[in-house]
Amino acid sequence: MDFKARLLELESEFWKRDEAFYDEHLSEDALMVFPEPVAVMDRDEILRSVAAGPRWADVRMLDARLLRLSEQSVVLAYTAEGTRHGEGTAYRTLASSVYVLRGQDWKLAFHQQSPTPEEV
Asked: Which of 60, 61, 96, 120 can bridge 77 by disulfide, Cβ–Cβ 3.0-4.6 Å?
């Protein structure tokens, strides 16, 4: 499996998995940015939010692009489409994530979701 495919697999897990997964795979200084009313969240807020809310039943990552910033950092950008467990309404967003290499592991340091053009 190539590097981009491995990161997409890890990214998919962030959409679907629980607080324990986040705790293990987030960097210590992680931030996430979402459209209002959520706004900016730090690591502790992210973990609380994941523990409190329903996870995603499925997610598709379309037109994924990878930008290597350095040997130890990359940006993954894509359009996400998915539905949450217990909800039938599809969600679509433009998403980007920054991963940093910590030892042998890639950790999520930053994630942002923005409305798709048809939602603006």
From this structure: 96
